[in-house]
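Ligand: pyridoxal-5'-phosphate. Inputs:
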Amino acid sequence: MAATLPNVSRPGAYDVERVRRDFPILAREVGGKPLVYLDNAASAQRPLAVLRAVEHYETHSHANVHRGVHALSQAATEAFEGARERVRRFLNARSTKEIIFVRGTTEAINLVAQSYARPRVGPGDEILITALEHHANIVPWQMLREQTGCTLKVAPINRRGELIWDEFERLLSPRTRLVAVAHVSNALGTILPVERIVEAAHARGVPVLLDGAQAVPHIAVDVRALGCDFYAFSGHKLYGPTGIGVLYGREELLAEMPPWQGGGDMILTVSFEHTTYNDLPWKFEAGTPHISGAVGLAAAMDYVEGLGLDAIAAHEHALLELATKELSRIDGLEIIGTAERKAAVVSFTMRDIHPHDIGTILDSEGVAVRSGHHCAMPVMEFFGIPATARASFGCYNTPQDVERLVAALHKAREVFG
Ligand code: PLP
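Predicted complex:
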């Protein structure tokens, strides 16, 4: 097959071979074959810059933050708060008060459900999500429903995996208290029209939470331009460490919200009778944070911005087009999720082969894809399938990776007839 990409080999263009050298794990073999890593939507690999930043912090600067007057505690605090400033710049937020470090997208959404929504909603009030959400943007609202008696409304999608706009608008009602939607779908790759969603919700005075877990590695996000009220993402999908993520919240909203966990660091004074809470953003960060994670996340942001998010997106888009074209030619293969605007995710099924068997055969060829429901069981139900196999591309994938994927899928077809 013609494994050609615009841009790849021209001088000054995106140099994917150089990018690959930044990721030592890509040099390893799986089952005696060179690894092809196409599970980036689940978790991306880390470049040396991130590994080294974490190692440097742990080797030279670690202590607890915000507490000690000694040199190491000050160094750790500087590193941690410096990372917060890096995140602020990455998102173009107004202030570091708006940047809350959390474990990841899941924790960020639970924080909004419990601290923003719970005190504000009651029976009859509505939370509006879409039919393509990850479980992390479904279950916290179901828990809220159990706690408060509110209603969960779900805006439908079409067979391409796109939000049906008129239905979404119709579901925005005078009882809607919050809209919570994915910026990019992990199961289908659909990029949602988030600007339009924010505009329509705000026109009715409804705040919007965007789940940016799948967006930040591919799209330059500017929370002020988007105008969203909350934005959540995880470090590990952005070439950073696991266990660290961010909740961005508009300061006016965060200031009014009660803390969601209690403990050290989120207080100013404590007595048995009365506790006063810390200022933003620390009010939402009870206990010792993931300091090296924040440092690694900041390094990951330096890394992707060094490559250029637009350059990464263009590179991945070319891979998406190539993969879509080549996979469509395989006998009995159906691509699930064919939205007009898509990130570099190709979900698919193959006639007479269970997605888990596809995953196993691909693994024996050194090709790592995900198979399953991708934590989006309602999406699978909508398409009437139990699962899909999913190839998701990152900044280091190549046309040769697509070629290896296609060859392995032909092998699966041979094995299963
Ligand atoms: N939202 C989306 C769209 C995701 O793809 C994921 C992870 O796959 C999550 C939320 C949850 O992220 P985490 O497990 O890092 O909290």
